[in-house]
């Protein structure tokens, strides 16, 4: 009897869980935090921002989502990327859209470190442009405030730490950017390499990053670093600094002898001669064959 009751309870719990999950998937619930839901764009959604957004969309989103209203999204993916002009997507708030394309989920990539905040809002401007009933609520945030921000990077050779200080030079004095999100990147040949995890600044506007001891730099060990700070009041600010924090490395240029991007002028002479000779022989054989075919046709005609 007791076993039966337990079985029943297990079955019930399972059923409820499955129903709950199914509902969650059907509703495609992105569980956007409340404070992110109500975030609005400081960029006005007009024809100009939509057309800039369209270019960004075509480069970063169209391969999966297709073109809005055309139903040409990539059907082989699961879940199928939704048509972003659909009523379901358009019901999302601007803040939700911003959150979704910033954080991503499974197949949907995160664009946080790929597109700047400006670019993300422009893409949303484009997504909204097909929705005639949409009315924008502009954010009161002033993007010009980001110009007041100064970001300082300091390297401590003893601990191999990089300390980032973010402050704003307000008229009333210097203000530390508290609780701002900070990420650090090193610029590599193809894109950026994130150093450690993003963190938040402390009450003095400071954040600390442990820097690895084996990152190759240039001949003098110099690495180009990008500090990206995102603050509620001051927006997104990036600062690029060159610092001697890497291992001195004499990297050959990508187009140097025998490198992948070598150019014709640097190829060894014998390769050029052999290759040209091969092409010449091929063309001659082809001409010979064509000539024979012409002769054959002539004989036939006669
Ligand atoms: C690699 C393919 C891929 C790329 C590239 C991609 N997405 Fe997505 N996107 C998806 C998938 C798949 C989903 C559905 C994910 C889910 O429901 O878990 C999705 C979901 C979304 C949603 C939620 C829509 C809704 O109604 O739930 C938005 C908004 C979105 N993407 C915007 C974008 C934007 C804007 C870009 C370009 C900056 C982009 N995506 C690039 C695959 C992609």
* CATH homology superfamily name of the domain at 25-128: Cytochrome c-like domain
CATH architecture descriptor name of the domain at 25-128 = Orthogonal Bundle
Instruction: Indicate the mean pLDDT.
Output: 88
Radius of gyration: 29 Å
Distance between the termini: 103 Å
Which CATH first-tier class of the domain at 25-128 would you pick?
Mainly Alpha
In DSSP terms (H or I, runs of 4 or more residues), the helix count works out at 8
Number of distinct beta strands: 8
Helices and strands, in order, run as HHHHHHHEEEEEEEEH
* Proportion of residues in β-strands: 15-25%
CATH topology of the domain at 25-128, anyone? Cytochrome Bc1 Complex, Chain D, domain 2
Instruction: List unreliable stretches of 5+ residues.
Output: none
């Amino acid at each position: 009897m007791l076993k039966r009751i337990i079985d029943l309870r297990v079955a019930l719990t399972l059923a409820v869980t499955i129903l709950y999950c199914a509902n969650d998937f059907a509703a495609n619930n992105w569980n956007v935090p409340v404070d992110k839901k109500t975030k609005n764009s400081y960029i006005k959604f007009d024809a100009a921002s939509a057309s800039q957004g369209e270019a960004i969309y075509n480069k970063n989103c169209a391969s999966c989502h297709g073109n809005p209203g055309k139903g040409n999204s990539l059907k082989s993916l699961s879940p199928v990327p939704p048509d972003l002009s659909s009523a379901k997507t358009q019901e999302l708030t601007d803040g939700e859209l911003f959150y979704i394309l910033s954080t991503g989920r499974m197949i949907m990539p995160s664009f946080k470190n790929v597109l700047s905040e400006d670019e993300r809002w422009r893409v949303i401007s484009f997504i909204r442009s097909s929705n005639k009933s949409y009315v924008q609520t502009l954010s009161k945030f002033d993007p010009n405030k980001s110009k007041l921000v100064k970001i300082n990077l300091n390297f401590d050779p003893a601990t191999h730490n990089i300390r980032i200080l973010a402050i704003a030079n307000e008229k009333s004095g210097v203000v530390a950017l508290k609780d701002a999100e900070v990420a650090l990147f090193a610029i590599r040949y193809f894109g950026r390499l994130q150093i450690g995890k993003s963190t938040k600044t402390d009450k003095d506007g400071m954040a600390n990053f442990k820097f690895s001891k084996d990152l190759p730099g240039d001949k003098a060990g110099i690495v180009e670093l990008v500090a990206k700070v995102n603050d509620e009041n001051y927006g997104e600010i990036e600062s690029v600094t060159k610092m001697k924090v890497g291992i001195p490395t004499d990297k050959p240029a990508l187009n140097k002898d025998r490198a992948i991007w070598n150019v014709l002028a640097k190829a060894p002479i014998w390769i050029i001669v052999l290759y040209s000779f091969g092409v010449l022989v091929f063309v001659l054989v082809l001409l010979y064959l064509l000539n024979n075919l012409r002769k054959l046709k002539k004989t036939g005609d006669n």
